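User: Please run a holo structure prediction.
Assistant: Happy to. Please share the sequence and the ligand.
User: Here you go; the ligand is adenosine-5'-tetraphosphate.
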Amino acid sequence: GGRIFSGMQPTSDSLQLGNYLGALTQWVALQDTHDAIYCVVDLHALTVGPDPKVLRERTRRTAAQYLAAGVDPARSILFVQSHVPEHAELAWILSCLTGFGEAGRMTQFKDKSAKQGSDGTTVGLFTYPVLMAADILLYDTALVPVGEDQRQHLELSRDLAQRLNSRFGPGTVVVPEPYIVSATAKIYDLQDPTSKMSKSAESPNGLIELLDDPKVVAKRIRSAVTDAEREIRYDPAAKPGVSNLLTIFAALSGRSIPSLESDYAGKGYGDLKKDLADVVVDFLTPFQERVRHYMSDPSALDDVLAAGAQRARELATPTLERVYDRSGLLPRR
Ligand code: AQP
């Protein structure tokens, strides 16, 4: 058992396959054994200045994709971050415990701010990992299922938890552990198989979005970058493109990489890509049908999210009160 917390940003019209394989499938599996809380982290999405109308739509679509993947609101808490104000409140306390240099060492901030320039980069993007620590610590989270790209942010969450406990006394918060499943921890861009697949990729050609037209997805898989050899073999260092295709194939079909390698011995990259395209399309078609179903009734979706926010808030309030009290803030009456 133990508490699980994780979230994704509504920064795009669709989640991408890396989000699904790196995180969402783990979320769904962990519901059976853990007490799980899954969040659409809309406050995080504000760090990149989205259009307000677009953000609202994307927030619902992200929740609908969680549901379509199998997040079950009868077993797990599903809610929107901004509906529980304690996230932003705890983030302030944590930002006063975070070193400026410490935050500046986050590689995701360095990468994203380098692309946006110093005036395009918000202070919110800089403090993003601190808000993420608040998300996690608010719920006495034991385990955080994420992809490899979040490892450094998780390490900061752990450092901040330990700092809170040493400043304000043991048991102020629980120190969380990352839960990163190595087989699918990093799915790569189809056109640039040494960079991770990302919602905000500069070119869509290497991206598999869960809500893309299946025909477009099939075409992108058929045009994936491979290498000049002919052998279908899992070797991420020498053959990143082919290895990424095998990873995706294995994860979506439930087959092992060695069995795929032996099935495709002597066959060409074209055969592998064609079969993988079929596997991906067979997964996406019913998935998109379920998303359409949840999106067809926004008010029912909002009810699920409201009920989730209420349950989340009941858990968050005592944690925030404990931290406020131990920080020396005068109790509210
Ligand atoms: N390529 C990936 N392979 C495996 N896991 C991945 N995740 C993201 N990309 C991959 C995991 O999905 C969750 C999404 O977290 P997020 O929405 O906070 O954003 P992110 O990590 O920054 O992912 P993106 O898709 O690249 O979004 P943008 O472009 O908005 O920044 C996390 O658990 C992440 O590890």
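Strands lie at 3-8, 35-40, 77-80, 143-145, 177-179.
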